[in-house]
Structures are given as structure tokens and as C-alpha cells.
């Protein structure tokens, strides 16, 4: 908390900054007005550059996703969010809401204006009958799974413990349990949300069903979500772990082709990655089975790879997830892009490996600080798409497209442009190749998951046929168009 004198000084320095940078005058002056107004509310206290809270509030897993907001704030009740919307309405400041900051696009959970950080929304509660769990949008998946572990229960959520519940539950939610129960967005029961018109409401299939479905992929397009209630499922010991493969990757590719050609086992999930640095690729295989032992033969070709090291064992779900944390250096910068793939054939898997290597050579030649290019293969079965309930992000059994995800990492901000461009080139080549091979479709026929897409992705490519009803709904609940003042895939 800043003292009244300190925040007045901060506003004064913000005002100086405004007059010093005419190009961003409008945005900055509306933000300065908003930060000043936030400071007049007793319960809300703005944080400014240089304070620990501000640095926390604007931080992201990838530093390339952060922007220097004029001030930040941590509301801790729906009423405070209502106040923030009325300040945004009065000042028309740019704003952003952040969960755990794992979005790999800037200006989506970051802004030059008013940064809203949701970390105070850390409540978590299991229902009396233990069939549902209410999670605050300031929690990460490690916290959620840790809370549920003593109850022998699980929810469909993130594969990495530090990812935010918020962004994943409002986008798609590829989970270790997706083959068994669907995407995370298919397993929400209700959401508490402050709409841009200031209404605080709980939406579900029975009340505000249009908003409830719009949130299943709609990210920040419909307001600020304070908590979500999720279906719980029983879980016992699981089997899984990761293997690193060095040298010749042919046997890893053979095993992936063989696994992908077999009928999918609902309890089993596989992720295979090419990790390329300056022209050399290694492999990473992550295997998961919801049960103490997988059926004989299912993962044997991976486990028996002669050039693999690592550990695969029976363990608790939380131990399995914690071991898979995707650590990032403090100066990490990253971006990614996905491509829809229907079948993981040998041709496309080999092509992804080749392109990861080729891109890593370009990264080494054209950037100062590029560190890694990864190419992710995630074979989900058609049944994973059978749980969809008409969500904003179209996914169904008629379009059971898996996601190739290509990630590039670096450290120097001067490399941002070139590495964003190379990531787009990498993705485009893989998508084109998949279309040529008959295992993907062109624009207009496939829809990209909002959480793995580049900021430049046209909104039609994400929401497709749903854009009409989403736009009508948005107009109804956002009469002052406050959502246009935050970034993202704006409908
Ligand atoms: C290391 C890593 C691992 C990942 N693993 C997976 C995975 O296994 N499966 C998967 O599907 N995805 C995964 N992702 C992608 C991830 O789901 C998305 O990046 C997700 O948006 C992150 O959520 P967040 O709350 O951390 O992000 P943030 O950057 O905080 O937010 C992302 C988006 O959600 C909006 N938002 C956040 N909070 C709210 C709120 N309360 N109300 C309204 N809008 C809000 C933001 O404005 C922004 O548009 C991973 C990402 C990383 C970096």
C-alpha cells in the first residue's frame, strides 16, 4: 500500500511522463487520470514503477508479453472490479487483466494503461458433495491440484503447475485428462463475472447460458471473471514421466507414428517435442496414464528407446505435474504459434523435426540471443472433442484437429521482431505442408485455440462461425465498448 503522499507524487511523475511523450499522449493521459482516480478509492491502491507490487503485477512468464503500465492494481472483491470498470468508463484508459501471466502475446494481459492483477482472488473451495470445486482466478494449477490431492480428486486443468487457472479456463485447456474428459473449458460448471456494464453475476447452463458459453474460449472479451466452478473427478496413482532423447531421433519418430496410428486410449496422453538449438535437435517425450500401470505395449516403444534417459514411474498426479514444470530464465522471452493437424503421419512428424532444426539455424544466424526452437506433437483422440458444449472456440468431433505448437525462446528485447517473424514463418510452413498432405484445412475451415495463437491471428480464424452471436452478446453487455480498451482477440 502506498501512502496518500507517495501516490500523489507518483501521479505527478506520471503527468510529467505524459507531457514528455506526445506520441502516446492520449493513452497516457487517460491512464494517468485512471491511476489518479484509483488512488482516491480507499480500498484500491495503485502501485507504480519501482515498487515490488508493480513489478509483480506487470510480470509475465515471457518478458516479451509485459508492457510498462502506468500503474497497477490488485482488486480483491467484485465490488472493487465494479469500481475499476466505472473508472475505465470515465477515463477511457487502456487496461488489461492478468491471471498468472502465461500468455505469450503482449497487450493481451498487459497494457500501457491500467494493469489489473487478479492475485488476490485466491479462494478455493470444494463443494459439500465434493462434486465441484470453486477456484479463484488468481490461482495457478499447482495450487489447485495441491488443494485437491488429499481428497483423491482432480479437475481438468493445465499440464504445467505455474500456468494460471484463469487464462487456461477461458481459452481451451489442453490437459493430461483431455482424452478422458475433454478440454478444461468443457468441464466448467459456472463462472462469477463482473460484466463491463458493471453487473456482477454468476453464469451457468441455467442462467446467462450465452455468457457462460462465450467464456468457453472468449478470454477477456466479456468482462473480468473472479472465479470458476469446475467438475471434479476421482484420481488415484498415475503412471508417467519424461524421457530425453539424444543423437538419432529416428526410433522416437517411429514410436510416435506407431502410437498415433493406434486407436486412442482415453486414459493415456502423449506429448513429443523436438527441441532444436543451432541446428541440432534432441527429443522430449512426456507420457501420462490415468492409472498405476498403462496397458502392455502402449508406451513400450518409447520406454525401450536405447538413447533415452529420464524416469517414468507410478506416482501421484501432483508429483507428475510438478516434475513437468516448464522453467523459464528470469529474462526469458518467448512466443509461439499453433497449426491444426488431423493425423500425425510420418511425413508431418519428420517435417516438423526438419523445420525445428532449420528454424533454429535461422535463429542462430539472425538473432543475438535466440536459445531454443521447439516443435510439439500432441496426439489427442477424436473422443477428446466429444465433450464440447457449443463453446465460443469451435471444437467438435467433426473437426478433431490436434495442435502443432511451435515455440521460440530468446532473451534480448532487440530480437523480438525477428523472432516473432521467424515463429510465424515456422508455423506457416508447417500448416501449408499439413494442407498439402491432406491433414489440415485452409483458413475458414479450421479454428485455432486462442491460448496457442499469435496476436496477429484474425479473430475469424479463432471463433469462426460463432463470431455473429458473440458480437451480438458483446454489444448487449458492453454498451460503452470498454472491452475495446483492452487487447487480445477482439470480437
Ligand atoms: C509454460 C506454459 C505451459 C502451458 N501449458 C498449457 C497446457 O498444458 N494447456 C493449455 O491449454 N495451455 C497451456 N499454456 C497456455 C496457457 O493456457 C495460456 O497462455 C493461458 O492464457 C495462461 O493463463 P494465465 O492466466 O497464466 O495467463 P494471462 O497472461 O494472465 O492471461 C491470458 C489471457 O486471459 C485473460 N484473463 C486472465 N485473467 C482473466 C480474468 N480473471 N477475467 C477475464 N480474462 C482474464 C487475459 O486478459 C489474457 O487475455 C501454457 C503456457 C505456458 C507459458
UniProtKB/TrEMBL annotation:
Residues 1-20 form the signal peptide. The keyword Nucleotide-binding does not apply. Keywords: FAD, Flavoprotein, Oxidoreductase, Signal. Residues 65-235 form the FAD-binding PCMH-type domain. It comes from the Eukaryota. One of its GO terms (molecular function) is FAD binding. The keyword Flavoprotein applies. InterPro entries: FAD-bd_PCMH, FAD-bd_PCMH-like_sf, FAD-bd_PCMH_sub2, FAD-linked_Oxidoreductase, Oxid_FAD_bind_N. Gene3D superfamilies: 3.30.465.10. PANTHER family: BINDING OXIDOREDUCTASE, PUTATIVE (AFU_ORTHOLOGUE AFUA_1G17690)-RELATED, FAD-BINDING PCMH-TYPE DOMAIN-CONTAINING PROTEIN. Belongs to the oxygen-dependent FAD-linked oxidoreductase family. This is FAD-binding PCMH-type domain-containing protein. It comes from Cyclocybe aegerita.
